[in-house]
Amino acid sequence: MNWSRRYAIISYLRSTIWTAPALAILLEQATFRGAYWLEYELGVDFGWIPGFIYSQAGVIAAADWIVNSMISFIVFAFGSLLVAITVTSGQLTPRIIATTLLRDNVIRSIVCLFIYTLLLAVAVKLRVESIPELIVSIMAILGLVATAVFLFLIDYAARLLRPVAIVWRVGERGLKVIDSVYPKPIEDPYVPAPPRQRLGPPERTVLHHGTSAIVLAVNLKALVAAARKADGVIEFAPHVGDFVAVGDPLFLLRGGAVAIDDRMLRGQVAFGPERTIEQDSTFAFRIIVDIAIKALSKAINDPTTAILAIDQLHRLLRTVGKRHLHDEAISDGAGRLRLIFHTPNWEDFVQLTFSEIRLYGAENFQIARRLRAMIENLMQSLPEFRRPALRRELDLLDRTLEKLYPFPEDLALARVPDLQGLGGASGAR
Predict the structure, then answer these.
(1) What's the CATH number for 204-272?
(2) What is the residue extent of each domain of the chain?
(3) CB of 244 within 8 A of CB of 271?
(4) pLDDT (tens digit, 9 = 90+) per residue, 374-400?
């Protein structure tokens, strides 16, 4: 099994909900058989463990109560997840289903607990005359624990549906991706990266075969090792997140890398039907921008949600602005160029952050003021060489406002920087 297939399997398992019930079944079988083996085969006495002692009728009654309760709890858990998917995908963006909701380990763990408790209760009821006392005690304790967890789930599900919780989760994941893709912070004073050595035209091109799909991730370590072993240079043609059709260039090979097997190279690239956030440094920006512009649509008209999204874009863009973004040339331990891996630059991040929100939201006072406050804050906190792109966005914002606000009073109000959008301390000044 090559790296791309392993990556696809792991990514699929991380974004599915059925793994929780499957794990619960395995745990129930292990618990049940382990208790039988310890108590009846080895003769271990568990009387010293604090537990619950019932009559046979009491065991049946407790098992009935737990079975009915767990079924209700499971229905609520899956129902709340479906409601969350429906509400958030409709009001925010469908991109958060696979990236956030289905990867929520809290809900998956709670579902696993409910199903595990249900299966234990069913097993106890079916074997009530010969069930180990340890299993009865575990069943009763888990029934009480599951009831408390169910009350927690009600509160957790309500909080999960809030837009601020969704954009915060996406922002947190975006920060982790930025740390992994751009690990080097900008030093003070800033020393520009040396220019990349000029390379000639590729000597061989590896085309994409199979099915047209989106690039999800690339095994960089394996590609660098292969290029070092062959004493050549590998260039990965597309960006992570690009759609690659059958027959499009995938690898550009130079030097000894032309002898590397095509199947080995293709096996280091994971493809899928939609973008994921693991190695895609701009996807978190894309998701949050989608949330903002949907909130700014005439059908929804929710600028406050757009402000929450801009808050997360603000901290993401500040983090990106303090990292080296042009390390596309990856060298081996000896300092020789082995891999060229294209990543977005500063202008890409700035345009993605501001362009669409300015286009759809500049006519709203909150958005215009929050964007200005964001730009001015970034210009103060980021190095000088990051500021030209920000000045360009500030100029575009001013020209847009002049076109949208015919009254001088409204134009002056829209030009006030305000971190809250409208009504903040900066607006009062």
Answers:
(1) 3.90.1170.30
(2) 3-161, 204-272, 281-428
(3) yes
(4) 999 999 999 999 999 999 999 999 999
